[in-house]
Amino acid sequence: MSAALAVQGLDVVFDRFRALKGVNLAVQPGESFGLVGESGSGKSTLLRAIAGLAPAAAGTISINGKQLGHRRDKAFYRQIQMVFQDPYGSLHPRQTVDRLLQEPLAIHGIGDGERRIAQALDEVGLGSGFRFRYPHQLSGGQRQRVAIARALILEPSILLLDEPTSALDASVQAEVLNLLEEVRNARGLTFLMVSHDLAVITHMCGRLMVMQDGEAVEQLAAADLVSRKVAQDYTRRLLTASDGFVRSL
Amino acid sequence: MSDKASTLLEVEDLRVTFPTRTGAVEAVRGVSFSLGRERLGVVGESGSGKSQTGRAIMGLTPPQAEVSAKRLAFDGIDLLSAPPATRRALRGGRIAMILQDPKYSLDPVMTIGRQIVETLRTHEKVSKAEARERALDMLAAVQIRDPGRVFDLHPHEVSGGMGQRAMIAMMLIADPELLIADEPTSALDVTVQLDVLAILDELVSERGMGLIFISHDLRLVSSFCDRVVVMYAGKVVEQLKASELHKAQHPYTRGLLDCMPRIGSDRHPLPVLQRKAEWAA
Amino acid sequence: MSEMPLTRREWLLSERPATRRQARLGRAYIGWLRFSANRLALIGLFIILAFLLIAALAGVLATHSPYIGDLAGARLLPPGPDHWLGTDDLGRDIYSRILYGSRWTLYVVVLVAIIAAPIGLAVGTVAGYAGGWIDAVLMRITDIFLAFPKLVLALAFVAALGPGIENAIIAIAITSWPPYARIARAETLTVRNSDYIKAVQLMGASPLRIVVRHIMPLCLSSLIVRVTLDMAGIILTAAGLGFLGLGAQPPLPEWGAMIASGRRFVLDQWWVAGVPGFAILIVSLGFNLLGDGLRDALDPRSGDQ
After folding, report:
1. Where does it primarily localize (chain B) (predicted)?
2. Alpha-carbon distance A113 to nearest alpha carbon in chain C (angstroms)
3. CB within 8 Å: B220 and A239
4. Which residue of A has its CA nearest to B218?
5. Run of H or E residues at A11
6. Domain residue spans in chain C?
């Protein structure tokens, strides 16, 4: 059986700065895998390198057993899609929701746009009333739903999620997380999700990898994290920090 | 007289109104609370008016907006009727504010040390040498390991956590009695966040300051503050002791607490906050 | 619809447009509201509309022929009931010549805009999006054009191509695209790393598609504003070339050429050079006011939240 997503010895270098140092990762089909770390840990860089938005200096990335070349072909983008962190920055400000959803269909020459767009909007709980709105007429949560609809409209099997809820209010976060779980269950998607919030990751993912300074600290099952069976001090520190403030005295 | 009884700040029926093309929008709609020498958390989601409340107390409301209140008094001084000079003297002197991102609140072309010295010298008559001495002490107090080096650095040369500590040092140098912190740690990593909070906590209790801690993070606030004010749509929906947050009555507070994922509780799907129109009424 | 019928204004300002057309019209209406709130911009728009109307109806409005004058009886007459704006040294009616001249001015302005703006837009967006050596090459070429004063460069081109209004247009167009390229490149650099461009890349869109369909529309509004503001400059450059005898050739009633031929009499018969000068002034002012208004209405940074 081949992994849905396998990364081996991946290095990413920006101007002599090594943002990723030999990272290995294997995500099984249908799995939801989390990447946790603080800023500068390389977790977002890993996601972007897989998507082809950051250059890989060394190492290999394979999707469903097929190794990716330097250039991604069109078929690749039908297998992997991504949802970005900032819902205010990831939608083109001059395009209506309709236009935003039409674009991927047009690029891949997929017909039947009317039905697909209506269906995609329904799936993310927006309905057709939102179809001809511009992004500035939407709230943060609604924008993120549009971004999810856009990622799903090409029917990918793997979804990369880059802090999809960290810019949202807590109540909206819950709605978006529920939506993500719903579509994952309905479509049998594989998730690779980045977050700085351990609670969000343990809620959403079965396994996770803790990262620091461009390296993997440890990989463990979410259940182990919950029962505090962690091997590394850094992971323990993150875990303590997520409990909130403790007055020392 | 206990600490809590000596009221530092009184806010009664505070309103902040912004004029827009489609009519006036009230961002804060009749907020009342009082503050002693304690840590008060103000919690709410975006658009709840929590930041505008802090800004109105500080006198940093944008000029086109209108601020009104039955009473807005700091240590007996009525802030709304006070002349601008008095307000300026209070601002940064007896009342200080820390903002979310140090990148935007520190002057990028001035060294950190000079900014702290300038702040001190606008509020107190001290010699340059003494000001420098006190600035270095203050940098040490916010647990910057090498104050002499950081003193001569520009804001862009330090990390986010270090910048926020420098910001705290700058705000606390004039020994304010009231500190308003608007999401002071939201831009920081979790581990750094707790360090900064620990410093803030120590300084506040050591110096007997009043603290208004504005945040969207209910969990953080409840672990850090003595008392919590929950805001929704420009109004206070609930005030309660931080330790009794789990006994919150208002459905909004309860919903907000409930909808956050928690480590070790397996709830699929997460309960969703059902907003009711009457909360905003 | 079963609900209460909407007024046209409510329909346009609706936050939930039901069709593509309503969304587009609503957006245009908000732009118009912003534009029309500026009184000076409305004056500018009025001047330009009047200018267009005059150019279209010159044949109807003119009282005399613009080319044939009365050499014997009507040379250098001051403004009067027969010749409302006087006559020139060949006895031609200046009022009629100004009306016909508006066509040439319009011709120059529109053609220059149609040639220069797309060149600038294409060069700027491609340079900005591609980066690297493509950017370096395109921008150095732009710098070379920018290094010369516009009129001098236009003069050189016209001198090489030969005098005439078509060549003047080509020369002005060649000299006026570099600033547009700079603007378009600056705009492109601010958006190329945004997540919404990354998202389109992630859909597998080709670079050409990204530039044409996603980046160019964002550069368009600042470019339109700049072109409108430049219209005055284009008119003046064309007039300058005409004045130097390198633009429109006699007997074409081009405004710059009219000033040139009137300059000999400017002290005694001021109207010969003064009237076309005034026409240039008014139209330039109109374009400038319009451009300012458009900037407020179109600028994506203002008001779009």
Report:
1. membrane
2. 14
3. no
4. A170
5. strand A5-14
6. 33-298
Whether residue A62 lies inside any domain: the answer is no
Side chain identity at C85, as an amino acid letter? L
Residue A207, phi then psi, degrees to nearest 5: -130, 160
The DSSP letter of residue B4 is T
ipTM: 0.90
Q: Which of B169, B172, B166 is nearest to B207 (CA)?
A: B172
In a domain, A18, yes or no: no
Q: Which of A140, A170, A202 sits opposite B259 (nearest CB)?
A: A170
CA C197 to chain centre: 30
pLDDT digits (tens, 9 = 90+) for C173-190: 999 999 999 999 999 999
Q: What pTM does this model have?
A: 0.86
Between positions 61 and 120 of A, the ones with CB within 8 A of C are 72-74, 76-78, 80-82, 84-86, 89-94, 96, 98, 103-104, 107-108
Q: Strand order of the sheet with strand B39-43?
A: B95-98, B178-182, B210-215, B39-43, B227-232, B235-241
Is A127 inside a domain boundary? yes
Q: In this structure, what CATH number is given to the domain that contains residue A169?
A: 3.40.50.300
Ramachandran sector of residue B274 (left: φ over 0; alpha: ψ -120 to 50; beta: rest): beta
The highest-level CATH class for domain C33-298 is mainly alpha
Q: Per-residue pLDDT tens for A144-180?
A: 999 999 999 999 999 999 999 988 888 899 999 999 9
Tokens representing residue B216 in the block: 């969207």
- Strand A32-37 to A207-212 pairing: parallel
Contact A90 C20 (CB under 8 A): no
Structural domains of chain B, with CATH? 1-94+211-275 (3.40.50.300)
